[in-house]
Amino acid sequence: MPTRNARVLFNEVPTGYPEPGKTDKYDDSQTIDLENVPLNGGFLVKILYLSIDPYMRGRMRAPTTKSYSPPFTIGEPLQNNGVGVIIRSENPDIKAGDHVHGFFPFQEYYVTANAKAYRVLPKDQNIPWSVYLGACGMTGKTAYYGWTAYAEAKKGETVFVSTGAGPVGSVVIQLAKKQGLKVIASAGSDEKVEFMKSIGADVAFNYKKESTKEVLEKNGPINIYWDHVGGQTLEAAIDAAAPYARFIECGMISQYNVSAENPPYAPKNLTQIVGKCLNLRGFLVTPLEEKYRDEFYATIPPMVAKGEIKFLEDITEGLEGTGKAIYEVQAGKNHGKSIIRVAAE
Ligand SMILES: NC(=O)c1ccc[n+]([C@@H]2O[C@H](COP(=O)([O-])OP(=O)(O)OC[C@H]3O[C@@H](n4cnc5c(N)ncnc54)[C@H](OP(=O)(O)O)[C@@H]3O)[C@@H](O)[C@H]2O)c1
Which atom of ligand 1 is nearest to the CA of 257? Predict the structure, then answer.
């Protein structure tokens, strides 16, 4: 019997911010025969959750522009991390009813034989499946790997975390507090500021209402800056840096949607890097995977299960909402880890 297999396709390279329904296209023209579709030694997955992440904007580009992640292909489904449940399997290591985490196309059902690209999730961890896309998934790993590898944190130091209410920033704040640091954190709404205070930020502020430069002047100097924003925020952090401060360059979202109306901004005070002996370190989560994955899974999911790491989720119901969710993450309108609930179990 044919069952709908709706997809979300990459439709057009955006200029500036992505435009829902223009950059992407919801397509429900395809069907799949769930009982009889050939598996060729692989497995059939019903996709339950798909993650929406800031870096997806970088993949919405012309193939001629080089970057660290491959471009999406016009007319093909978007792709990202997801969680699904196995419906049928010909692979002895992956059984019907198992939940798997890995990369999926944005569609409802998927057949693959690439078992090594997926991790079977533990059933006994008392963690909702969606959280394997956030605190127990890529964004939690980004925070844990980057902090462990590069923060060189010492008790009593001061760290500034921008985008502190987001899925990466909120884990960074909680790791820093556990190590006894003073945390200054910024976000773009009063609701996000309240959340940052609730997870331990000592100084939490709304950068749309207060000047980042003034808050850092008053509460700094900072020994560590965890950057998600770049641009003027990075400039303010350089001004507030103590000698030998570490700058962990995790993201620069203020520069992802630049256009003629929203031009790029480069910090004007880079000479301070020399005088203050600053260490600016860019990093990506994927190259650190091999080194820190086992330690991460042994550490963070048990803390999440015990409520020791808190998080927010922003769940969109149905694949049709994908374009809007992508836009909202770029525009700062999401409140927590942005996730598409593709289907109920
Ligand atoms: N290096 C890596 O491997 C890696 C991996 C994952 C994520 N990242 C980066 O980490 C950062 C956070 O990711 P996330 O998943 O935790 O994102 P997120 O918080 O879910 O969403 C992005 C947030 O960025 C903020 N923002 C958007 N436009 C902004 C602007 N012009 N100026 C300042 N803030 C702006 C918004 O929060 P506010 O309301 O607070 O402005 C928005 O909610 C992103 O820059 C992302 O690219 C890097």
Answer: 31
